[in-house]
Amino acid sequence: MAATMLTGCGGITVREHRGYVVDEQLTSGIAVGTDNKASVQKTLGDPTFTGTFDQNDWYYVARDTRAFAFRNPKVTDQTVIHVRFDPAGNVASVEQTDEKLIASIRPSGDRTPTLGRERSFFQELFNNIGTISQPGLPGSQRQ
User: Fold this and answer.
1) Secondary structure class of 30 (helix, strand, coil)
2) Which of helix, strand or coil describes residue 121?
3) Most buried one in 48, 84, 91, 113, CB count within 10 A?
4) Region of residue 76 (left: phi > 0; alpha: psi -120 to 50; beta: else)
5) Which Gene3D superfamilies does this chain map to (predicted)?
6) Are 94 and 83 in contact (CB under 8 A)?
7) Contacts with 40 (C-beta within 8 Å, 6 or more apart), sequence order
8) CATH code for the domain in which residue 58 is found
9) Can you tell me the distance from the alpha carbon of 57 to that of 17, in angstroms, rounded to the nearest whole number?
10) Is 84 in a helix, a strand, or coil?
């Protein structure tokens, strides 16, 4: 019975689309120097997110993923439309990229390196037993 359940779940492939739905006619209609923030918002809608340091950068992100059973999803297609505005609010540039610019960040291990010595749970728990408090220090009874 367990083998039957595993075989049944093993063939499940989940495909998802998240984010902006790209329409090539609409995105190609954005003209540098002619359009402004209001016309881009009417044409493309609200951006997926704006720039962290510069609110004149708008990003529209569309991503398709595929996952096999319960594994982590893998990106099969991604489109990012970056609309940059000048200080007056007019379109300065329109760029489109794909999934080739996705950065793969791999952590170096499951522990964060720290300075100092390593203590066990019990050393941390019973560390202050028997210490003498000095006046004026936090936690002391006398002032």
Assistant:
1) coil
2) helix
3) 91
4) alpha
5) 3.30.1450.10
6) yes
7) 30, 58, 83, 91
8) 3.30.1450
9) 23
10) strand
142 pLDDT higher than 70: no
In a domain, 83, yes or no: yes
Distance between CA atoms of 21 and 29, rounded to whole angstroms?
Answer: 15
8 A C-beta contact, residue 9 and residue 69: yes
Tell me the β-bridge partners of 64: 17, 77
Q: How confident is the model at residue 98 (pLDDT cuts 50, 70, 90)?
A: confident
At 16, list the tokens.
């998802």
For the chain, the average pLDDT equals 81
Residue for token pair 């007019």: 90
Structure tokens at 118: 């390593």
Q: What span, in angstroms and rounded, lies between the C-alpha atoms of 124 and 143? A: 27
Query: What sign results for the dihedral spanned by CA atoms 23, 28, 29, 31?
Result: positive
- For 4, phi then psi, to 5°, come to -65, -40
Look at residue 14 in the predicted model and tell me its pLDDT.
Answer: 87
CB-CB neighbours of 140 under 10 Å: 11
* This model's pTM is above 0.70: no
Structural domain span for residue 82: 12-101
Position 23 in a domain: yes
How many structural domains does the chain have? 1
Task: Flag whether pLDDT at 127 surpasses 90.
Answer: no
